[in-house]
Design brief:
CATH class: Alpha Beta
Number of helices: 6
Distance between the termini: 45 Å
Helix content: 25-40%
């Protein structure tokens, strides 16, 4: 069976819309009692945020089953500890959009598929191969999902102003992390895809469906370039801190 099971679903109202769930939560007096920032950074690592200078003085809030750090200006929120992968992200994204958030930048890790993308490299995603299930329930089938060009341009300009090296590349998004085969890696590498992640194509598709903007930044954390997987996730704290600073600056520059 191809996805979605009912191709006629596009444009139809869902049985449970995000606003429906929010109204239920409000009726139970469990809705977060703070204003949702318009600009949101998703920190895709499912563990506690490391200590980062740019988060000093932030307000620490609980947002449903996630954590939200609201920066001093009140306009930017950093959402973390909500799990990982496309479904977990889509749930948070839907609720945030329904509560008024407009722009989103994802900060996380990705594996490298090619030899010249190395551990610690910073990558801006320019398109995402749709190999997960979420996106097909939001927008019709296509090979790739695309980020907001306006946000990508703000990120490029931020890195230029900081004299930072930023690679720009397509990613392969899959929600089956333990089913990435050597044949797939070779095929996608030949297509020019340089990284693999778990959220980007769903992230871009949900945002597009809801009229929001989304972009993704990766720190390369592991290599799928040899005969065996080579993990270096323990070496990504510094590049992730750098990317969080880039995302905050890109939002603040408007």
């Amino acid at each position: 069976m191809s996805l979605p099971g009912d191709p006629s679903k596009y444009g139809k109202k869902a049985f449970i819309e995000p606003e429906t769930f929010i109204e239920y939560v409000r009726s139970r007096h469990r809705l977060p009692k703070f204003e949702i920032p318009k600009d949101i950074i998703f920190f895709f690592i499912p563990t506690q945020l490391p200590r980062m200078p740019m988060l000093e003085g932030a307000q620490n809030k609980k947002f449903f089953n996630a954590k939200m750090d609201i920066l001093k200006n009140g306009r930017i929120g950093v959402v973390s500890q909500f799990g990982f992968g496309a479904p977990a992200l889509a749930i948070q994204l839907e609720m945030l959009i329904a509560l008024g958030a407009k722009r989103f930048i994802g900060v996380g890790t990705a594996g490298s598929l090619i030899g010249d993308v190395n551990i610690g490299d910073l990558v801006l995603c320019n398109k995402a191969l749709r190999d997960e299930g979420v996106s097909y329930h939001y927008v019709p089938a296509s090979e790739y999902a695309y980020p907001s060009e306006k946000l990508n341009q703000a990120i490029r300009q931020t890195c230029k102003n900081k004299s930072m090296k930023l690679k720009e590349a397509p990613t392969w998004t899959t929600d089956a992390i333990y089913r990435e085969t050597a044949d797939e890696v070779r095929r996608y590498r030949e297509m020019g895809i340089q990284t693999v992640d778990m959220e980007a194509s769903a992230f871009f598709s949900v945002a597009r469906h809801r009229g929001a903007e989304a972009a993704s930044l990766f720190a390369v954390s592991d290599l799928l370039t040899g005969e065996e997987w080579a993990p270096f996730l323990h070496e990504t704290s510094a590049p992730l801190t750098t990317l969080l600073d880039v995302a905050i600056t890109a939002f603040s520059s408007d």
